[in-house]
Amino acid sequence: MYLNDLKEINLKETNLFTPRQLHILDKLGLLTVYDVLTYFPYRYEDRSTVESIESSILNKKPVCTIVRVVEHQSIFFKNKKHPKIIVEDSKMRASLVGFNREFLFKTMKIGKRYWLYAEFILKFDEIQTSTFDFEEYIENTPPKNFGKVFPIYSITEGTTVKELRNLVEKVINKYINEIADELPNYMINGHKLISKNQALRSIHFPENIISLRKARFRIGFEELFAIQLVVMLKRKNLSLNVKNFNYTKEELIKQTIKNLQFKLTNAQEKALFEIIKDMKNKKPMHRLLQGDVGSGKTIVAFLAMIFASENGYQSALLVPTEVLAFQHYNNLFKIAENLGLKMAVLTKSSENKEDIILKLKRGEINLIVGTHALLQEEVNFHNLALIVFDEQHRFGVEQRIIMAKKGNNPDILVMTATPIPRTLSLTVYGDLDISIIDEMPSGRKPVITKWFRKEVDYEKLIRFVTQELRKGRQAYFIYPLIEESEKLNAEDAIKNYNKLKRLFSEFKVGLLHGKMPSEEKMRIMQDFKLNKINILVSTTVIEVGIDVKNATIIVIEGAERFGLSQLHQLRGRVGRGEEQSYCALVTSCEETEDIIRRMEVICNYNDGFKIAEEDLKIRGPGEILGIKQSGMPELKISEFLHDEKLLKVAREDAINIIEYDPELGLEKHKCLKDGILKHLPIDYLYSG
Ligand code: ADP
Ligand code: MG
Predict the structure, then answer these.
(1) Residue 499 domain flag
(2) pLDDT tens digits along 310-327
(3) Distance, CA 545 to ligand 1 centroid (Å)?
(4) Which of 348, 355, 409, 483 is the most exposed place for a label (fewest CB within 10 A)?
């Protein structure tokens, strides 16, 4: 059995857990045996070697030491007496201050020895610690909670790290010996790797720091390799495809560029050139267009669509929301119509659906913009040659495959506003060619971002917004998703809408949320665009893509609930015109370290690249890049992602294997096929 096969064993079937434990695991998102085995600790406490109090001070880190209790004292703090235990190791004395831990006098007896884990600091001329863990030292008896490296898991309410350790251990004990290696022996030996089951055991319960390092290396390397293997296989398969259409005319696109209201930036021109070159090629395009929010990706995609039209082919632009679909359509259809092209929009609530579907089939519509509605089975094309996915992370690989099948080896362009470091893009987008728009249209001013505490400075914020509105500007007020319930979100937005109407009685306030009928959505967006509405209250339906130049303020309420890239996306709604724009982050909760860090990153950086890097550090690559949706093997260990040398090794291994055994038919590669490839989405390796 391979690790991946354990995705099919539900924890309920294992008979290892009580209902309460299953509930806790469920709350942590752990449903299968695989989930538990790959729920890696986020850090470890090294209690494997005994060090000194001095070493803790010198190296500014927690240490494991053995001390003797020499005296009991007390300190007064906030009118209360708290224990202060004086201990010493072979070199020096220190105080353990136990706030509200009266019991310490009983559990740490004078004269006795204890294992201790703590980080000491020098405070008031005294060596001190107030957070520490201890256990009595008994000669010739191994300690329970010392002498090893201990995993620290992220947990949820109702459980402890210790309990989680036990739960993980149960799963390991039951399954670990059945797990086979997905890497061939020659690779394991060649790279001096440890076996998969040893690595899995050690990553949870390492003997010492060296075995932990080996375990992380083994798993990290394998993950990089698995992704490269998939990428290379896919490239190989795709390279066998040939298009049955070709491009000869290039007039309309030139004319359109000339007639635009603005001049394309150099970066846009370069990206467009690369796309057109791909389209003229015999092999289908698989290209990623990457550019920060507001860098002008839409027009580049649209021009490529015009190019398809003038050569007689159909093209489709897929966007994640209805509002965005209408916006793109409204902005672009006139240009298309002036060129004698027919453009349409299709969403789930389009009234003339049947008509559109018929015309698409007959080839009477040249360009279509739409939401997921375009993926439906009834939607077919006459000769679909180009597909563009806007905000690609909102579309899963399966959806890309479904769409690609509506054409005959069509060209595919995916767009993203999440810039990522190059080494990482080789990994995650390794099967795509990449174009980058790294330049903003001229005349844009960086958005000024400030953090407001709701309780303290909300009034100040409202005064500021009022001032700006009086200058004729417009503002967004964004409210976070409260729960996975559109209804509740809508209710919340409505409540806040009424409140803002009172606060801003001299202005016109509009409301937009996901639950509204699409005509109303369209009307509200249109009114906002025409400045008939001064303030737009909204849930995150406007997160992606909305473009209104006169809106120069965005107030993000409950900012603590948004991730970095989401905040950056939201902020990207302003700063689209010549005027100075502002973004206000409003938080109304206790400030955790994580929240402070996120707010500071957004306040300090305007550059999406920088923010993506910070986001990577905080959340890890799996989530932010949507690796799950990408159809790639999972990536749980990220410390090797920036290791270019290692990435190269993994890549070369993959290239060699695919060259030598493209079908992975050899006995020695059976493990790769069954262990890694079997669980990928169907068809993934064979389509765009
Ligand atoms: P994004 O890359 O975030 O999708 P958009 O395509 O929505 O950005 O473009 C943002 C705004 O910039 C739009 O209003 C668009 O018309 C405008 N724009 C695009 N390219 C240029 C350019 N070269 N010069 C001036 N404005 C541009
Ligand atoms: Mg966009």
Answers:
(1) yes
(2) 999 999 999 988 888 988
(3) 10
(4) 483
